[in-house]
Design a protein that fits this description.
With 336 residues, the chain is of the alpha/beta class. The chain has two domains: 6-120 and 302-318, Nucleotidyltransferase, domain 5 (2-Layer Sandwich), CATH 3.30.420; 130-301, Nucleotidyltransferase, domain 5. Helix content is 43%, strand content 19%. The chain has helices at residues 36-40, 47-69, 88-105, 114-125, 165-175, 182-190, 214-230, 236-261, 277-289, 307-318; strands at residues 6-11, 16-23, 26-34, 78-84, 109-113, 133-138, 143-150, 153-159, 266-270, 293-295. Strands 3-2-1-4-5 form a five-stranded mixed β-sheet, sandwiched between helices. It has a five-stranded mixed β-sheet with strand order 8-7-6-9-10, with helices on both faces. Helix 4 (114-125) crosses helix 10, helix 5 (165-175) runs antiparallel to helix 8 (236-261) and helix 8 (236-261) packs parallel to helix 9. The longest helix is centred in the last third of the chain and has 26 residues, at 236-261. The protein is globular and about 65 Å long. The structure holds adenosine-5'-triphosphate (ATP) and magnesium ion. The site of adenosine-5'-triphosphate (ATP) has 24 residues, from helix 4, helix 5 and helix 6. Residues 114, 118, 139, 304 line the site of magnesium ion (MG).
Length: 336
């Protein structure tokens, strides 16, 4: 087995068609073709549109990634591809392409769980990172705190009881009349506002490492409806800032609590919400106060990308976990 294997990663679980090449833990290329601007017209991802966009883009994005890395496909040691969770039709495009490539080149196929990919993104940021560490996972479909004990084993300490943090950002964005995907727009608007609108308590001190976002979302819908019905003035920017702080402060706090309770000295994070500058600052402050090392993936490696899929592919490659060519796509894979 190669010491620093050359691995191609492919991601197509939602509206991003992405391909990346790594050599060991060094990222050589990282390409992405997104259909998000098309999806924005519909206020969310339309599965059939996503599948068609993937099938138009997959060949080109893989060729671009190989070219940018300066490698030939014949040099690859393995193809890692997201097989779940995600939109079935979308996943099948990337998975079928990866199977064809692996079969044609006679190299291993490695099916990657998208969420394990988000957790692996930090390995690319810091080539010295090794478990144990505590990870905050906050994405469009998941919000959890995990204790990674070895490269292949993680324990879920707690997670959301209802909506994911990213989902809450997307729903609140709609209420505020902001486009999809909502997270970056809410963050931008929040920078112009003040944290002055009262928000419900976010299971603080209760519920261990669990979270709940649906109450926060409903509170904001009711707040805006009431203000509109009474004809009272209200500030969209203040609502955005107050929501952002209520939604994210708790994540930083509980992540650090997890590290201290488990006597783990390193904290990492992953998922689209971790691209949020306010959350990154809060994590930095909280880890700094507790003297914990913090590794945050680059913002472009927090939202969906193929570099993280290649990074998790490397872990599975080293563990000898290869997938059969009969591997099927999965719409959901439970976190615990
Ligand atoms: N700057 C930001 N601030 C807050 N949220 C953000 C920001 N950037 C992206 N997000 C949110 O992150 C989510 C997208 O993240 P990601 O691509 O990891 O989710 P997903 O792949 O749809 O879900 P999952 O990874 O759980 O399957 C969206 O909900 C989006 O609004
Ligand atoms: Mg994701």
């Amino acid at each position: 087995m190669e010491k620093d294997p050359l691995i191609l990663g492919i991601e197509s679980s939602c509206d991003e068609t992405a391909a990346a090449v790594i050599r060991g833990r060094t990222l050589l290329s990282d390409e992405i073709i997104s259909s998000a601007s098309v999806q924005a017209k519909y206020g969310g991802v339309v599965p059939e549109i996503a599948s068609r966009a993937h099938s138009d883009a997959v060949d080109e994005v893989v060729m671009r990634a190989l070219h940018a890395a300066g490698v030939k496909k014949e040099e690859l040691c393995a193809v890692a591809v997201t097989y779940g969770a995600g939109l079935l039709g979308a996943l099948l495009v990337g998975l079928s392409f990866a199977k064809g490539l692996a079969y044609g080149l006679n190299i291993p196929l490695i099916g990657v769980n998208h969420i394990r990919g988000h957790l692996a993104a930090s390995y690319l940021e810091d080539e010295t990172l090794t478990p144990p560490f505590i990870t905050l996972l906050a994405s469009g479909g998941h919000t959890a705190i995990l204790h990674t004990k070895t490269k292949t084993e993680s324990e879920v300490l707690g997670g959301t009881l209802d909506d994911a943090a990213g989902e809450a950002f997307d729903k609140v964005a709609r209420v505020l009349g902001l486009p999809y995907p909502g997270g970056p727009h809410v963050e931008k608007l929040a920078r112009e506002g003040k944290n002055t609108v009262p928000m419900p308590k976010m299971l603080k001190g209760l519920g261990g490492y669990d979270f709940s976002y649906s109450g926060l979302k409903t509170h904001i819908i009711n707040y805006v409806d009431t203000k509109e019905q009474k004809g009272e003035e209200w500030s969209r920017a203040d609502v955005a800032a107050s929501f952002q702080s209520a939604a994210l402060d708790i994540l930083a706090e509980k992540t650090v609590e997890g590290a201290l309770e488990r006597h783990v000295e390193t904290v990492t994070a992953g998922g689209g919400v971790v691209a949020n500058g306010y959350l990154r600052e809060k994590l930095q402050e909280a880890c700094g106060r507790a003297h914990l090392k913090l590794v945050l993936p680059a913002k472009k490696h927090c939202t969906d990308n193929a570099a993280m899929i290649a990074a998790e592919g490397l872990i599975q490659y080293e563990a000898g976990n290869f997938s059969p060519l009969t591997l099927n796509a999965r719409a959901s894979i439970p976190l615990r």
